[in-house]
Specification:
This protein is mainly β. The protein contains 3 helices and 15 strands.
Length: about 240
Amino acid sequence: MAPTRTLKRLTTVIPAFALALGASIGLASAPAQAAVWNSCDQWGNTTLNGYTLYNNIWGSGAGSQCVWANSGTNWGVWADHPGTGGIKSYPNSKKVINKSITSLGSLSSSYHVSVPSSGAYNTSYDIWDTDYDYEIMLWVNRTGAVGPLGTSQGNLTLGGHTWTVYKGNNGANEVFSFVRTSNSTSGTVDILPLLKWIKDTKGWFGNETIGDVQFGYEITSSPGGLDFVTNNLTVSGG
């Protein structure tokens, strides 16, 4: 991926301001029932039942995007980004963990999504340590011309899935990407064994404190407007 990870992280703490979007776009992007919350702001965000939702349009050359949510675990996004290269956005739902790897008894997540068959994007977890020195991405599906940062370290079956592992650096932090070898729209990921594999088996980091577990859609292009729906998401552990 392009070395723009720091931008994606920093945008979650910049105050919100509205994009020049019509109110009709926001309504069109919402589900049939009235959503609890929706926003077309570039940095629009809210907290619902322990999860924080972000619209998070952080890349250059982005188009229009609106996010809606019934809860922190049932939400979606409508995005109309041009068919050009480079990541445009990462709308996501975040759960804060703030525990060291050795103090975690468990950490897992279940997901169920409905995603388009066109465009260029990946559906992924983005996991950070509290110092933002390390980024662990778990790609559960991808479509179009997208690929992870770094070089392949081979395949690994762990946490309930088989992944191709990539290791890289974006100039600001280390990035470890686990890309599922086949696309999935629902499942459960046992995250803790993956963190322990990085720490104990590979020695790529020490006993880091895991801060954020984010889940969302890293969108490169979605011309004409596409819908991405998180039907259900749970992040649990401690």
